[in-house]
Task: structure prediction
Amino acid sequence: MGKRKKLAAEARKAALKTQYFAKLKDVPSSPRKMRYVVDLIRGMEVNRALGTLRFSKKAASADVEKLLRSAIANWEQKNERKAEDGELFVTRVFVDEGATLKRMRPAPQGRGYRIRKRSNHITLYVDTKNDKD
Result:
């Protein structure tokens, strides 16, 4: 590895140590459906976001709730203390498209219809409000 690439990699690693996030990959749900749930909690305080996800009727909200709890635990682990009420906020959250499985479904007159089984990747960042400002 060249010196420039090595310095860039070390800078990325140092930046990740100050960010608190969690990733969930290859969730078997379409990205569009997941974005509906993620848009509900973007910018919210984490306890309020957990309540919103808990009582949401969307099936994808269970995965996002689990991911949010993981991000909170990551913050607590890196800061070596428990998060107080109203301290943490969902700063950034985004959904990327994952691998798509292509399948065929039988159709009339010997034809076949394509089915795309989509998946997605979710990345969720939490942080305190005063660190963001």
